[in-house]
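Extended Data, panel c. Modelled sequence:
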Amino acid sequence: MMAWTEHLSLRRLLAADAASCALMGAALLAAPQALGGWTGLPPALLSGAGLALLPVAAFMALLARGGAVPRWGLAVVLGGNALWVVASLMLPLLRLVAPNALGWSFLLGQAGFVAALAWLEGAAARARPALA
C-alpha cells in the first residue's frame, strides 16, 4: 500500500506555491492602504512583502518547470517558507506590529497556509527522492 504522500507531485506543489506567492504579492501591492486599514498592519510592510513575493514566485515557477528539482532549490524554498512563517508570527509577538483581530486572522491564516504547503513539499520530496 502506498502512502498518500507518494501521490504528491513536487512540481505541482511548487507551481501552487508560486501561484499563491504571485497572487498574494499582487494583492499586497495593489491595495496596501486598504489592507492596512482593515488589518491594522503597516501599509509599508504590506507593500514591501508584496514586492518581495514576486521574485520568489518567479523562482518557484522556474523550479516547477524544469527537469529535476535541484536539492539546493528545494532547500531555498523550504527555508524561505519557514522564515516567512516565523516572521509572520514574530512580528506581532515581539510587538513590532499591532494587528487588529482581522490582522491576526490574516497573519495566522497565511502563515498556516505557507507552513502546510512547505510540509507538503517536503513530504513530496521525501516520497519521491528524485532531486538533482
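Residues 9-127 form one domain. This feature is highlighted in the accompanying rendering.
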